[in-house]
Design a protein that fits this description.
13-stranded mixed β-sheet, 4 domains, Jelly Rolls, 30% helix, 34% strand, alpha+beta
């Protein structure tokens, strides 16, 4: 067989004589099996448009885009953003109320925007609006504070139990759980309690215990005793005295077999815990045991 018969056979270029001779060769059968198997194969489907779109997407993804910015415009954009941020922060900060608080065994002196002075007793909190102070001299109080109010517009102290209003004076307000007391040391104080208004001239006090108004008491001092590190009581239930001791000395108070509603008259030191314990226990005829940061008041059988 001629060597070029295979190529001519694949191209259908063999003559009849050459084709007959090629078919009689030993290699024809093998070549014919290859041709038959190839014809049985199916080519995969191919979507030309989808393939072209995929190639374009890859090209766009790999391309690097560079956008030129005007440096001055970029600076203006950053400056505007900073200005907006600072303006927002200013108005937010100025809209917040001032909050001042004290812990156990702590006092703080505060000067308000109108130069009014406040001394905040232990375990107390005072809130007011610094921004609107000139228009409304309003304070919220939890605990006890002594006020020296500068003359001016109406000055109010709001507590959970009642409200106190003055124009310019010196007074003390205490609002604890179950105990509300207002004492006027100078000028005139108006106290609103349970919808009733009471006028307090200098030297008088308004006291309410467990929601009940107690007879007004006269005061001989010019400032509250706690300003001078001493807590004073006159016919006050013992439970309020013990609570005040705990606040002033940061010592946990526990009681056993004693009537905490018994009335107490006297005073104790806010700086000397041992002396204070003696001042409370002796007139009340009770005992106490002090261990670390805890004291137990008890009555002997």
């Amino acid at each position: 067989m001629q060597e070029n018969y295979l190529a001519k056979w694949l191209n259908n270029e063999l003559s009849e004589a050459e084709l007959e001779e090629f078919k009689n060769s030993d290699t024809y059968a093998t070549y014919q099996q290859i041709i038959d198997a190839s014809n049985a194969l199916e080519s995969p489907s191919f979507n030309t448009e989808e393939a072209l779109a995929a190639v374009k997407n890859v090209h766009l993804f790999n391309d690097t885009k560079v956008v030129q910015l005007n440096p001055f415009k970029k600076f203006l954009s950053v400056a505007a953003a900073v200005a907006i941020l600072l303006t927002g922060t200013y108005f937010y900060v100025n809209s917040l109320d001032e909050q001042i608080s004290t812990q156990y065994a702590e006092k703080k002196e505060i000067v308000l925007p109108d130069n009014s002075e406040v001394v905040l007793n232990a375990d107390s909190r005072l809130i007011y609006s610094n921004k609107n102070w000139n228009a409304n001299r309003n304070i919220s109080l939890e605990g006890e504070a002594f006020f020296k109010v500068a003359k001016g517009k109406r000055f109010t102290v709001a507590t959970e139990a009642g409200e106190v209003a003055v124009l310019g004076t010196q007074f003390n307000v205490e609002d604890r759980k179950g105990f509300f007391e207002v004492t006027c040391f100078e000028g005139l104080v108006s106290v609103s309690f349970n919808g009733k208004e009471t006028k307090l001239p200098a030297g008088s006090s308004f006291v309410a215990i467990d929601g009940q108004i107690v007879t007004d008491e006269k005061q001989n001092s010019i400032i509250p005793s706690w300003i001078n590190a001493e807590s004073t009581f006159k016919s006050i239930p013992l439970k309020f005295v013990l609570n005040e001791f705990q606040r002033q000395h940061n010592i946990i108070v526990e009681t056993k077999n004693i009537d905490t509603n018994l009335l107490y008259t006297g005073s104790f030191s806010n700086t000397d815990a041992n002396l204070a314990l003696q001042s409370i226990s002796t007139p009340s005829r009770i005992k106490f045991t002090l261990e670390g940061n805890k004291v137990l008041f008890y009555a002997e059988n």
